[in-house]
């Protein structure tokens, strides 16, 4: 079991969600008791329940419990997303810094991220610009030689 940052972020999210589940369960159980005691008509001797009061009190507790549950789940999702971003960034950094398999680094990155040929965005030159066929640099029309040495006339 690795103990990297994204695992810690994920377990933090799971902790939040776990706490919210426990709180929601406790609140619902409390709601059952409070609703019963509030709705009791004529004291314990008669044990007659006002079902309108009972259900409205219980419903209030259940709504609060559901909101807490949703907040816990939302925090877990946000932290999972952050963990995913962090993991991708770390893997990219690991792949790029792996000098032992230098020739395989680019293909590793391509495999990792599903990069296919031509998937990178190439900007389109405007009317007063031209693109160098050698290095893809966009140059203004009055520039006759690209910084890479390619001449505009031979482009
Ligand atoms: Zn060029």
| Strand residue content | 5-15%
Q: Structural class of the helix and strand makeup?
A: mainly alpha
**Share of helix, binned:** 55-70%
Q: Round the mean pLDDT to the nearest integer and report it.
A: 84
Q: How do the strands line up in the largest sheet?
A: 1-2
Low-confidence stretches: none
Q: How many structural domains does the protein architecture include?
A: 2
Shape by Cα distribution: elongated
Question: What is the H/E string?
Answer: HEHEHHEE
State the separation between the terminal residues, measured CA to CA.
55 Å
Total number of β-strand segments?
Answer: 4
Rg calculated over all Cα atoms = 31 Å
Outline the biggest β-sheet: 2 strands, antiparallel
Tell me the number of helical segments per DSSP (H or I, 4 or more residues long).
4
User: Could you tell me which ligands this complex binds, including any ions or cofactors?
Assistant: zinc ion
Summarize the structure.
The chain has 155 residues and is mainly alpha-helical.
Question: What is the element layout, followed by pairings?
Answer:
Blueprint: H1 5-39, E1 40-41, H2 43-46, E2 48-49, H3 51-97, H4 102-113, E3 129-131, E4 138-140
Antiparallel strand pairs: 1-2, 3-4
Helix pairs in contact: 1-3
Bound molecules: zinc ion.
